[in-house]
Design a protein that fits this description.
binds 2'-O-acetyl adenosine-5-diphosphoribose; 9 strands; single chain; 241 residues
Length: 241
């Protein structure tokens, strides 16, 4: 199986990676839906990751994100991030809000669900600033307009950043191989990129510890840990993008 996937990657001129929380799981950043520790098994996304939840109790939301920010700040890229980042010829699209791919050295990562290491104005005045992940801020106001600041991530019910989404769609339409890593593929529109790539003719390789909603789309499904499977797949010399 891994040989077939390696051949697909060697033959593919344009390769795109599409990752989810499983990519960062072995760095100590929790996933959302894995039992029993998945974040959404223990916390209510409607209260913590939605505009309605923020309106109802902004301090609860900001304090929860402060804890997540400390976790991400303490985490280090794992061998899967490093292997992906080492391939300058692969374009990376991720649902992860952590910055581990970028810290591993990847350029131009498309972060569909935003970035936890930034705050932005909740009223949309355009103000955005990087936060200190080792000492994350509490609830505070936008210095530009006085509205509350909030993490620059996409919450349930919010649209994806439109230019990132258009770039991701284009990349998935144009790629020869989509390498899908560590996602349950249940959150749309992001998960729809897999079907989009497939119907545009791309080969689909899936790396996951378990089967997922995208398993039926896989040309090759490699069941195993990202930190082991991804480096084994990608230890090819890099080609210019
Ligand atoms: P999920 O938690 O839904 O899925 C994680 C996937 O990773 C599961 O399919 C696991 O089997 C797999 N997995 C766990 N550990 C792994 C490992 N070490 N190696 C490989 N695979 C592993 O996370 P996402 O699919 O990323 O949205 O969730 C999608 C979105 O739902 C997130 O971006 C987030 C969440 O609500 C927003 O923040 C908007």
């Amino acid at each position: 199986m891994i040989d077939a996937a390696r051949r697909m990657l060697a033959d593919g001129r344009r390769v795109v990676s599409f990752s989810g929380a499983g990519l960062s799981a072995e760095s100590g950043v929790g996933t959302f839906r894995d039992a029993p520790d998945g974040m959404w098994a223990n916390y209510d996304p409607a209260r913590l990751a939605s505009p309605e939840g923020f309106a109802a109790d902004p301090k609860l939301v900001i304090d929860w994100y402060a804890a997540r920010r400390r976790t991400v700040g303490d985490a280090q890229p794992n061998p899967a991030h490093l292997a992906l980042a080492g391939r300058g010829d692969i374009l990376h699209v991720t649902q992860n809000v952590d910055d581990l791919l970028t810290r591993a050295g990847a350029d131009g990562v498309i972060s569909l669900h935003g970035s936890i290491d930034f705050d932005r104005c909740h009223a949309g005045c355009g103000h955005e600033e990087r936060v200190d992940m080792t000492d994350p801020p509490g609830l505070r106001d936008c210095p530009a307009c006085g509205a509350p600041l909030r993490p620059a991530v996409v919450w349930f019910g919010e649209p994806l950043p439109s230019s990132d989404w258009l770039d991701a769609e284009q990349a998935c339409r144009d790629c020869d191989v989509l390498l899908v890593i560590g996602t349950s593929a249940v959150v749309y529109p992001a998960a729809g990129l897999i079907g989009l790539a497939k119907s545009a003719g791309a080969g689909i390789i899936i790396v996951n510890t378990h089967q997922s909603d995208a398993s039926g789309l896989a040309d090759v499904e490699l069941l195993g840990k990202a930190s082991e499977v991804v480096p084994a797949l990608l230890d090819e010399p890099a080609r210019p993008r």
